[in-house]
Fold these 2 entries.
Entry 1:
Amino acid sequence: MKTLTAPDKTGELLRAGQVLSVSGNVLIELTDNTGKTYPPRSLIGINDLGPFGCDMQLIITAVSGSTQYELIADILKIKGLSVEYSGAQREYPAFYKRRPFQHEAVPFGTALINEKTLTGGTTGLSIDLANMFNGRPTSKCAITVAGTSVNLDMGISSAAFDFDAEAELINSRMLLCAVKVSGANTLSQAVLFVGDGGFANYSTYTLQPLGVTPDGWTILGKIAVGADFTSGSPAFTGNNRVRLRLVATANWSVSDVFISSVYVLPSPLPTVMLSFDDGYAEHQWLAEEAEKRGLPISFSIARDFIDSGADFLTSSQLANLINHKSGLFEAINHSTDNNNFSGIGASRYLDNVIKNRDYLKALGATEDAANCHAYVGGFRDAGLIAGLKAAGVISCRAVGPMNKKNNNTLIALQGKTSDTLYDLQLTALLSNAIDFATVKSNVINTATGTGLAIIGGHTLKAAADSTSWVKGYDSNNGILNLLDWLAYQRDESGWVITKWTDWYKDVLYGKYPMAL
């Protein structure tokens, strides 16, 4: 750990794959190994910079006060690292306090919470230390007499809660809270009220159930940003009055209700995955172009296409991609052939996935990569997903495209049991039906909204068609236009361009819980 005091500056060499971890207020100037310089970046608070695909020379200037920083190896990128990490998770900077949620909109679990309303019922309110969420106390509402309403309100009876600077950005951020309910009650949604002391000026935000954590917390979130309703002109600076309405599917019965704080989440770390299917011959050229830009690709391989003719990769070419010295490429599992689950049934389909896994591993694919599966045609059902889980498959991708489906926040909370891990959706599927401008719009919308955008493709040809984009530059459908833009977003905007297995490890064990 090194310390820098304003206005001092220092130089550091950030090796490819390393991360600069900073706590303080600094200005970073960057120059890559070709001599290209980039606009200075300002880092305030606790932040990471990197990893990059090449060495970067840094000039670090302390802007104010004392800054601590260190260069750490991004161990999430080490090839072959086991999913479980053998108990050795990423080493966080010493100054980092692992508190995934920090910016509160309603401070449940504190003495500020002093009102509760359930029409027709009797309730008690207390701070609970036995049912903690995120390492913090929760508020317990004990319903001792059943109510005659589906609405249970809890909050602060006056304008007494001062949002921090991040929470004041509530209208441009995701919201999230956790609730645990005993008895027969089932939540349908929650509604957050934020306004002045008498709610003459207020906004409301509806949080929908997103899933359940392994330890029984129902996660409620608002993914689309912005208020659902506004009356008057609420101001989020200074003291606010806040209230959370828990809406049940039926009138509230006798039970204990535990509520975590409602959190305003920071902007997600924009993340993009490139995934090209089947193993076409053009993918070797694509890998060469991606390597020039330091961009990773997850190639979704179907065994029976390999060595099947001039249109497809040979097994030698595929092995070279899998074992490429850059570590930028991986082969993931697309079953042995192009027969989908709907056509051949679950038993045969599962057998094909297992055979393809063995084939990829024999060529050098990691266990994790061979256990990431792209559904053929996107077809699946609950029974197939259960079978894939039992067979050791760790994550699956469908087709879509369905923007804002791949929620890093929810996956990080739910862990390996998350249903979303087995239902990842494409943000864009490259064909003549979607142009470069639309792909960019979809990716920006998804990556800055929930964190993971997936761009899928098949072949590359002289002209775009129903399964291909242009093999070269083209303002409408050029794959090189897309690669250049992704490299720019990584270098200028701090986006992460990732392989599937790296994203899986990051979201479950590393960066995303750290950044929530």
Entry 2:
Amino acid sequence: MEPLIERDGIPATEVKPARPKHNRSFISYCFKTDWWLENGCSILSVLFLMGMIILLAHIDGQPLSNWPFAVSPNAFISVLSTASKACLIQPVSECLGQLKWLHILQSKRVDRITKLQDFDNASRGPLGSLHFFFTRPTKSLMPYLGCIITLAAIATDPFAQQILSFGKHLALADGVHSELRTSQYVYSWNEDAIISLERATRLSLDNEPQLPNLSCTGFLCKYPPFASLGVASECQDVARRSQRVCYPYETGRNCTFTTPIGFQLQTWQMAYNASLLPDYNNTVASISTYNYSNLFEGGPLQRLAILMAPIVYYNQSNDSQIFECTIKLYAIEYTKWNTTYGIINPGRTKTFPPAYLRGTVAPDAMDDDDLANFTVTDPGFNYQRKFGITSLNILSIVDILDANLIVNEWSDWGDTAYAFLSNSHDIPATVNRVTAGLSYQMIDGPNATVTPVPVWNDVITITVHWAWISLPVTLVLAACLFLLVIVYQTHHAGHLIWKSSLTPLLLLQESYPLLSAGDKPVWTQFYLKKRTAVIANHLTQ
């Protein structure tokens, strides 16, 4: 056994007091001593973290197609996060190594030297840090903080993987527009336009009206509110106010109904026990009137009466339905219309009655190509208030309505209008569909006004979930604070900076005191061999 020798009058069993504090300032001490590597790693860790935050802020909400590199954004974030973690682990490990020497100098425990292994294991990784909590070699809080940082760093990579997500969102297409065509002035339609109006009106008898031709060159087009010239209907049930006169005959009866405004409608009903019944539920009659001059006085474009009576005659006379409908020219407002993937999504419509503007040409003297001008006086109408339509087009509208809604005594069961009206469950709704289909086709006329419409595309965008970056930020701040505290404790106590070095354990008592971890012990050949032999003997059985 080596003898215990006193030095400087201090027994070998006692700890020598620390040397006086450093004369240099704390700032100078941080950057001009052996802490430069740890300080540099901490600065790099902060820079990598800041780079990651700046990158995330730049790409948040951006389309993935704008990403200029072949490597995915997730890969960039993972690299920056891993680099930041690697840089912060180095100073934390060295600070834990320094704490074992501070523990030797400051702890009052007699067995403190036997706990050095716990500090050394904690500085080597997560398993040693976890074991440190079970052995609890010290009551100081700082070593436990270092162990918590080491353990929490394990979760950095999983957290970084959750920062970015990719989803489909709508984005405004740059430099791409669609067109909205609306009719302010309806000049003479050509033959194709007339055929299109007739087809749309006929289809509306039994189906939803054919929607207007609203084009869109992208995923979504949101059309601004617009107005166009069109027609609309208003129907009233006048069955109770109509007069009925019926004449029975052998297989049924024939009835004539007179409506309040003077329409006379005739229909027939078969006896209940008739051997041959048609495929329709009702017998239908409808007539209309049209006064050209009245139109320009604010009157209706067309008035019609429609009667529906059950075909089977068996005390069912009270089931007859009689409607008087008025169809007028209107300025129609369209709001909240859009198209998605080429499918038109109808919005809202609102009608505004226009007033005729008298000109130099009297209504009765108008030629086919003369333009009838109207204006909307309603203060709630926020669009171009003037509209116009040629007299020939007005007559075309009346003819189209007559062809689809009028059933007279010469109509037979094969007539299209008769077939649709006789099976209708809601006459006002049917008439409204017809006028709506006609109005939709009038929107895009041959002299339509063109308005550019922005286009939205369905693009994959990058979304940053900022909550997941909380752990990397917290770890970097905690590691920097941990380093700052350990450096301050070492500076304040005047201790040498040994960190993870094992040199103090190799020194002989007779060796000269070292001033820093960079100094080498001044050993003679004899003492060097002697100390090596002692250590080597502990390494063999």
